[in-house]
Amino acid sequence: MTSDAMDAFFKLHRDLPREGPGEPADIAWAAALAGLKPAAQMADVACGPGADIGPLLAAAPKGHVTALDKTAHFVDAARADWRGDGRVTVLKADMAAIMNSYDMIWCAGAVYFLGVTQALTAWRKPLNAGGVIAFSEACWFTDSPSDQAKALWNKDYPSMTDEAGITAQVVAAGYEVLGTRRLDDAAWEAYFTPLEARVQMLRPNADATLNSVLDRSEAEIACWRAHRDEFGYLLSVVRPI
């Protein structure tokens, strides 16, 4: 992506509440499945603007969240929201090198930057005994997706697989799957509804580069609404064997 395209991307995404599909119910489900304790130490990896910090604290109200992202304005947004709350530390950091120790590592939609097996391998050391990793990953829900869905996802996710494929990558890292959950429509709309409003706001004065970014986002939204039964995000809760 060129620098102009990157600037246009962040013009669209800056100050949005989320950077991908998700909802508090996903975290509550993962925490319950993991048997997360009230004082759990948690990491929110690639936290974006910090939408999941509150739900993580709701799952472990006496615990602590270390949220990290390598994009400076996401870090600034999360810090602004949680400044002065001793239960939260927000760091500008690389997800490939997590420091400290955690009872749960949460990663919403960003494992693909490293790959499932690579991420789980890298995050094994900072995971406390009995700890879990909960991550969501783009996933095919059918063996015969439509041409529109394939055109959208194959460009950026050429190795996108199905649930069995994700499980195989988990097992390859030496983990077991405690449970899986498909993100539902509410999780997608929590991301797409404000994104769609931002697209409409920016469109009248957009230059060619920004228009291209806006077109891409509109195509993504339209594809999901037309073919949501073919693909989505699979949330997996896993534990080292």
Would you kindly provide a written description of the structure presented here, covering whatever features stand out?
This protein has helices at residues 3-13, 24-34, 53-59, 72-82, 116-122, 147-156, 163-172, 185-202, 208-227; strands at residues 41-45, 64-69, 88-92, 102-108, 127-140, 161-162, 175-182, 231-240. The protein has a single domain (19-184, 230-240), classed as Vaccinia Virus protein VP39 (Rossmann fold, 3-Layer(aba) Sandwich), CATH 3.40.50.150. The longest helix is centred in the last third of the chain and has 20 residues, at 208-227. Strands 1, 2, 3, 4, 5, 6, 7 and 8 form an eight-stranded mixed sheet that branches. 44% of the residues lie in helices and 24% in strands. It is built from nine helices and eight strands.
**Rg from C-alpha positions?**
18 Å
Give the amount of beta strand, in percent.
Answer: 15-25%
Name the CATH superfamily classification: Vaccinia Virus protein VP39
Count of distinct strands: 8
Question: How many structural domains?
Answer: 1
* Class by alpha and beta content: alpha/beta
CATH topology: Rossmann fold
CATH class: Alpha Beta
Total helical segments? 9
* Residue runs with pLDDT of under 50 for 5 or more positions: none
The major sheet is characterized as: 8 strands, mixed
CATH architecture label: 3-Layer(aba) Sandwich
Mean pLDDT: 96
| Global morphology | globular
Domain Methyltransferase: 44-131
Protein name: Ubiquinone/menaquinone biosynthesis methyltransferase
InterPro entries: Methyltransf_25 (IPR041698), SAM-dependent_MTases_sf (IPR029063)
GO molecular function, one term: methyltransferase activity
